Amino acid sequence: MWIQYIVLGLLAGIASGLLGIGGGLILIPALVYIFGLTQHQAQGTTLALMIPPIGLLAALKYYQAGNVKLGMALFICLGFFVGGFLGATVVEKIPDILLKRIFGVILFLASLKMIFAK
Predict the structure, then answer these.
(1) pLDDT digits over 68-86, tens only?
(2) What is the DSSP letter of 93?
């Protein structure tokens, strides 16, 4: 099974380096629909794997090309740190099916915006 996990991580890593996506668009749906995790488990597992600096090498390449706004990233990171705790505190009260639907709607709306916005 660990080989499948590595392949999933590799695919998500490539997507992350290429398009800046990975966790929400690839990992969570794969963990739910391929590996059978609940939505809560998939989100928690994805957050846990982000603890080490998994994007460090990709971010370094972007930084070297002048495509990282470091000050902005640091402040967003601070907000993400606190917001992640707050969100994780609230999410346990949301039923799994509702959480899955909320997640799907957000992905759908984001995709429409990306496709049709100028």
Answers:
(1) 898 888 898 898 889 989 9
(2) T
- Can you read off the two tokens belonging to residue 74? 């640091």
Domain locations in the chain as residue ranges: 2-116
Per-residue H/E/C for 18-79? HHCCCHHHHHHHHHHHCCCCCHHHHHHHHHHHCCCCCCHHHHHHHHHCCCCCHHHHHHHHHH
Residue corresponding to tokens 């992640």 = 84
Task: Confirm if 14 and 3 have CB atoms less than 8 A apart.
Answer: no
pTM for the model? 0.77
What span, in angstroms and rounded, lies between the C-alpha atoms of 101 and 32?
13
Those residues with Cβ within 8 angstroms of residue 102's Cβ, 6 or more apart along the chain or in another chain:
94
Closest CA to 30 of 58, 52, 5: 5
